[in-house]
User: Fold this.
Amino acid sequence: MAVLAAFMLRADAKQSLPDYLDERIAKSIGAPVMPDPRDVKGFDEFYARHRRGLAIEREAVKSLDRAFSVAEGPALGPEAEASEDL
Assistant:
């Protein structure tokens, strides 16, 4: 946002945004750094294990939901209160 604001307030109103960015930013950006293939492979393996574990976590949450709903007993609402009076 600050770069865009600076672009809007520049003295040279004829300069295009791409030219402005090239002048102000592009020179300060270094050459791209490519990841080490071993790191990529390691991350891919980690992420695959993580994704497989999500099913386990999903089932654990369902189990907790069932455990708490049983422990709390039936829900009390207007219908439940009315039936107790009979």
Notes: The chain is about 70% helix and 0% strand. Helices lie at 2-8, 17-24, 37-72, 78-85.
